[in-house]
Amino acid sequence: MTVRAGVVVTGTEVLAGRVTDRNGPWVAQRLLEMGVDVAHITVCGDRPDDLTAQVRFLADQRVDLIVTTGGLGPTADDLTVPTVAALYGRELALDAELEDRIHAIVQRWRSRMSSAADSEPLRAGIRKQAMVPQGAQSISPTGTAPGVAIPSDESRSLPAVLILPGPPRELQAMWPEALDSAPVAEVLARRTQMRQDTIRGYRLSEADLAETLRTAEREITGFDDLEITTCLSLGELEMVTRYAESARPAYMDLERLVGKIHGARVFSTDGSTIDDIVAHRLSGHRIATAESCTGGMIAARLTDRAGSSAYVIGAVVSYANEAKTGLLDVPAEVIDQHGAVSEPVAALMAEGALNRLNVDIAVSTSGVAGPGGGTEAKPVGTVCFAIAVTGRPTVTHTLHLPGDRASVRALSTTAAMHMLADALETR
Amino acid sequence: MTVRAGVVVTGTEVLAGRVTDRNGPWVAQRLLEMGVDVAHITVCGDRPDDLTAQVRFLADQRVDLIVTTGGLGPTADDLTVPTVAALYGRELALDAELEDRIHAIVQRWRSRMSSAADSEPLRAGIRKQAMVPQGAQSISPTGTAPGVAIPSDESRSLPAVLILPGPPRELQAMWPEALDSAPVAEVLARRTQMRQDTIRGYRLSEADLAETLRTAEREITGFDDLEITTCLSLGELEMVTRYAESARPAYMDLERLVGKIHGARVFSTDGSTIDDIVAHRLSGHRIATAESCTGGMIAARLTDRAGSSAYVIGAVVSYANEAKTGLLDVPAEVIDQHGAVSEPVAALMAEGALNRLNVDIAVSTSGVAGPGGGTEAKPVGTVCFAIAVTGRPTVTHTLHLPGDRASVRALSTTAAMHMLADALETR
């Protein structure tokens, strides 16, 4: 059976576009992974009437579960629990044991901050956070805000609702206990288990993949039982397929067909990202980067990962030509002759990093990120790359990348990751 | 008069949490800036029934304008225009002139890609994109998808709707023409002009600002006419105030009060970000970074800005100790004696960058980003910084930053930007 959910994200700063919501996407992904269909996500500010309207809307859309995020703080504008409780016709009651627990958490924080004694506003805030709707189950807080799970109410045509706090770390830490709470577990028990698999391609166009899917539709038995979405992001094409266990053979046929037609353009069929693949292949290596137009973004991305100090030695951002010469030993005459954005300079940058940082693999970038600096011969978006590997000839590439400065820099960073993955594969 | 709007973001990949929506926040910000109140943002997949339900919901909430994004492509799953047109009871009609224009745009792209001749699916896709609801106004495409503005329909209790494409660059380029279209202009003409001003603080707590706002509420005449939201992000506290022109004196009083109480912790009252301030103050300088735990993030952030090549010379990411010694001349004995995460090492890193890259200001970071590597004396989150300036003693700081690896790295990057701003101010 299909179980449908809706997500309500609260927060004036999210509604106003000043803060990027991380909870809606995270909750949606978790629900989809476990076979729950996400029908709607709604965002509202701190106005109780708007929140009530959104919950009522999702109920009218016959979702089986509503998850709300945010609005559980100690201050007066945090209104999710009383607003939802009123809609469900449930009185709030103080949970004294919960109040003590929140108080203990707050005391621990305050002792670290060496603040003054309890104030009345502070105690009132804690009491507010410890109010639980009658018949609801509270979810243990990891910050100061407990969550609440309220069972469905058929007489009011209201589905089960799970109320979680706004800070992503708190929400994510509370998720397992939330799923186990009776009101949520009861809904989840009704669902058909779904699998979800992801295929990722690089330099593979949406049109080409669409053509392959048309072939699949003709040739693969059970293709219609696969729910496929595709998405192009930073030059990577992601194809996510959801299916019931019974459709597994059809999915395996599809995976084979995509691999057969697109070959090496498919770089992942097991969910791994290009960052996972590069990190895995870098095991036992020493890497450095030499960056101009990417300005340190490749180094930042490599070191984003815990444990990257095992293989990242360092990087040189040689933004000015004098830095290319001074730190990477690129002769000024080569820059004069070919220009900074050229394959010879990119090659010497990578080789300079290889030597100076004593690594066995180095990647370099030199390009015109824009908006200025473009010429007829080298328009904005022209980026030269090189990969230098100990004991091998240095390989260079030139790409013409679309979009604005941010786009060119981001696409260059992703391109460098793919070049690294390729170079590390064929050693 | 208050004009209210709702935004509908379409896209299965957004609903599924795989792609971060950039359109909802962008549209919300633009609307708020011009004094339109954004009441709801909703996200739906590619199912017409869900889209119809969301538009109907926003209409029931009495918004004056609905903006939809996405679902205007040439393929069958792009259904926004026919779905909304059906709800508004308007037939679709082919706009032959528009069809020709889209055809010309597609031909230009295809000639660059050196593809084959027109195919029937291609022509069908173009024809689909050139279908305009009767009585609606089309908005010129900047990609291949034109937008559509449909006037309000009182007999159906439906507000004006503006339909725009999903690619953010296309949507943003079409925005000015969309605002001028008769159905949208008619709604905007009814609004009260609102001002919006932003005050930004650093190392200023939400609790302290809340206390200041309570004082303001008591002391400032007209305080209730100010609509204030506060938001803490990466250690920066942002206070955004919306108000009608008549409440300008109250806002000026508030700005003075906040400045009087919080002094230098308020770094911006004119909308400028710390990146704007640093870029402005770097004019005429030469800067380099020497980064360990931030792994190139400060350099990437500085070079994110067009024109940064005027002052960014380069950076050294000295992730391994040997890179600190080899590229930044930090003596191995100092690292042995104090540890890599120490103020003496941070100072020598910044000074090494100053000398090696021949700049007049350099910032360095060395810290424990986690999850591993923490000790009793230097737990995860301990980050040492230094600012070296030609002719001045090098200044060091140690911060203890909360959160996971990504949080420590991001907070460190922002902290470095503020240290740069301070150092550049007092020259």
From TrEMBL, chains A, B:
Q: Name one Pfam family in it.
A: MoCF_biosynth
Q: Where is the MoaB/Mog domain?
A: 6-186
**InterPro entries (alphabetical):** CinA, CinA-like_C, CinA_C, Competence-induced_CinA, MoaB/Mog-like_dom_sf, MoaB/Mog_dom
The record's CDD domains line, in alphabetical order, gives: cinA
Family, per entry: Belongs to the CinA family.
Q: Which NCBIfam families match?
A: PncC_domain (TIGR00199), PRK00549.1 (NF001813)
Which HAMAP family does the UniProt entry name for this protein?
Answer: CinA_B
Return the PANTHER family for the record.
NICOTINAMIDE-NUCLEOTIDE AMIDOHYDROLASE PNCC, NMN AMIDOHYDROLASE-LIKE PROTEIN YFAY
The protein's name = CinA-like protein
Origin organism is: Rhodococcus cerastii
Q: What is the lineage of its organism?
A: Bacteria, Bacillati, Actinomycetota, Actinomycetes, Mycobacteriales
